Amino acid sequence: LKQSYDDRCVRPERAMAHVRRIRGVFKVFLACYSWVALAGEVVVNCGYFKEPAGHLWTYGVDAHSWTDSETNTTYRFRFWPQTSGGGAAKKLDNGELDFAHLGSWPYSTASSKGLRAKMIYVIHSKDMSQMLVSRHGVNSPQELVGKRVAYIEGSTAHLMLVHLMEQVGLTPEDLEVKPMPCEEQMIAWDRGEIDAGFMWGSCMRYLQESPWCSAPDPTSPRYRDCAADGKGKVGYDLFTAGMSRRWGKETWNALAV
User: Fold this and answer.
1) What's the whole-number average pLDDT of the chain?
2) CA dihedral of residues 104, 252, 59, 56 (deg, nearest 10)
3) Which DSSP category does 169 fall into?
4) What is the C-alpha separation between 160 and 148, in angstroms, rounded?
5) What are the pLDDT digits (tens) for 24-54?
6) What's the CA gap between 208 and 186, in Å, rounded?
7) Of residues 247 and 39, more confidently modeled
């Protein structure tokens, strides 16, 4: 767990092989898509997440455009950052997005409800790219009892939190779990109003690298005294997606169209 997230995620040789595979997938997709397009220009709206693997697949389409030499159709790619996989699935279903990067659980949940989209590529199995980061003093799952834990509702992080609780014999009543967007988690972390957050990308790294309870706000309705064993210390990597996989609940990111 001490090895940095970025070192694990971005290996040049693996990244380039990944880009080459995605470029092939995109060309097959667009070749099938082009039957509805006349020679000219087509705008393709893409949903992605602000994390290394979330950006990586965009390089597979050269990030801006691709021209089909047979039909002389140029595809212009517009990339829209997403805040949750459930939200990305809804936008795929209503046509706001043509394809999107989203987690396995939001995709499977939406598919079971009739999502009009198909998975075409698995970007990566999650390992260190999502994790439950806690304050010091909460160094084991059992120490979550009575603590405040934040997560993104309907996300793969939500699924893994539920799985963790099942594995260690905890129930929702044993702790205070609260759905909370990324930005709110960071504010709550600074104020000491949550004890742990299950996140990914820049928000996850914020919890890992920022001192807990650095800016308590006595006017906040969730204000409480900061625990001395955690105050001023950066986050602790309590539970990772890789651990969840080894415990029998694997999650991954995929491209869906």
Assistant:
1) 82
2) 130
3) T
4) 16
5) 655 655 555 544 445 578 888 888 887 655 5
6) 11
7) 247
- 3-class DSSP assignment, residue 154: coil
Cα distance between residue 115 and residue 139, in whole Å = 39
- pLDDT, one tens digit per residue, over 127-173 is 888 999 999 999 999 999 999 999 988 888 999 999 999 999 999 89
Structure tokens at 43: 């705008």
| Cβ proximity of 251 and 156 under 8 Å | yes
Residue tagged 């997230």 (tokens)? 5
For residues 227 and 212, give the distance between their C-alpha atoms in angstroms, rounded to a whole number: 10
Q: What is the pTM of this model?
A: 0.75
CA pair distance 44, 59, nearest whole angstrom: 15
How far is it, in rounded angstroms, from Cα 112 to Cα 140?
34
Q: Which amino acid is at 146?
A: G
Residue 128 DSSP class: S
> Residue 245 is encoded by which pair of tokens?
């996989």
Residue 140, token pair as written in the block:
């084991």
3-state secondary structure of 78: strand
195, 130, 191, 194: which is closest to 163 by C-alpha?
Answer: 130
Average pLDDT over residues 89-108: 90
